[in-house]
Amino acid sequence: MNVAVIGGGVSGSYLAQLLKNNHDVVVFERQERDKFFPICAWGTSINELRRLAKRIGLNFDDYVYHVGKRMYVQVKDEMLEVKLKGLCTFDKLRFILDMHRDINVNYGSKIISPPKNNYEVVVDATGFSRSILPKIMKDYFISTVEYRVKYKDPPFDDFYIRPINKLSGYLWFFPLGNGIYHVGAGDYYKNHEQYLNDFLRKYRGEILMKTGRPVRITPPHLSTPIINGNIAGLGECIGTVYPILGEGIIPSMQCAEILARNINNSSLEKYPEEVLKNFDIFYKLFIFIKKKFSGNFSLLRDFGLLISPIIYMKRREERFGLEVRARDWLKIVRSY
Ligand SMILES: Cc1cc2nc3c(=O)[nH]c(=O)nc-3n(C[C@H](O)[C@H](O)[C@H](O)COP(=O)(O)OP(=O)(O)OC[C@H]3O[C@@H](n4cnc5c(N)ncnc54)[C@H](O)[C@@H]3O)c2cc1C
Predict the structure, then answer these.
(1) Residues in the chain with pLDDT < 70?
(2) Phi/psi of residue 237, each to 5°?
(3) Fewer Cβ atoms within 10 A, N terminus or C terminus of the chain?
(4) Which residue segment(s) compose the domain that 260 sits in?
């Protein structure tokens, strides 16, 4: 098949890699090659990324910056310590550029309507922009700002996060090695800059870079349509971001696996159904956080909404890269 992938981020590039041996694939990326940069904290689970990278002939360990032992979670005045099981940071820029190496990528190509050539499948992998598929009726997103900071004397020796408000976001401090950190914050109610500025005033370092963009938290169930004729949405474009964590790398690559399987079977029909089944938990979590944001969450009435994601993550600790303890989650949920 002739496949056009719009967006050369992590999901579009991974899909192109999965398809390149059996199809004619061309990627259109709006950023220029020398300015290409994936805005993200670059945190993921080493276990799942090893599997995903191996499928396309890359050794994920070559890209890893820091493998965490613990994550400090500041819950009001108390500091929880979560044991880590593979949560790491990695060089996401080099990882994506290495995926670009042996595929056809047209940089500097901003595409805002389906390309006219006879492509049998057009993939919208434009992330938050969702440039090709019809707009989502009611879209939810978290605004973010992130700094790259160099510390001589870092305030924490490992991953650190601090929830904001009614769990409407959080501040993160992710080690990249050599005294460099991604320090950022995102909040549905846009109070993140205040939290971030307070943190950076308290823990002063040398600011190397400032970025930021919104992250979609509308789950796939509400990011419809997922396909429109021969156009298929992929990754954050169709909401494959774990709502409470803002974690989109693994889900977007897993979404590419699902799409590649369906394209190889020459049919897109089953793709939306498989996406919804695979990311069912995202919908439950979204309902939970929406209730929490709006102050409508009751621990007694909505216990099921809280417990199912905990069970889901508990069964997949390696995939998430951390130990999941119900009492930590309950403490966090009760405190905000
Ligand atoms: C500040 C921040 C921190 C984050 N931290 C983490 C984290 O630590 N771990 C994690 O798992 N997730 C994190 N995420 C989420 C994660 O980065 C995304 O969900 C994930 O990268 C989605 O991949 P994608 O390929 O679907 O979209 P994107 O990564 O957004 O890629 C889309 C690509 O499409 C291109 N594009 C856009 N419009 C057009 C167009 N019209 N024409 C051509 N090209 C276009 C863009 O330039 C981009 O390269 C973070 C997000 C943000 C904003």
Answers:
(1) none
(2) -55, -35
(3) N
(4) 2-335
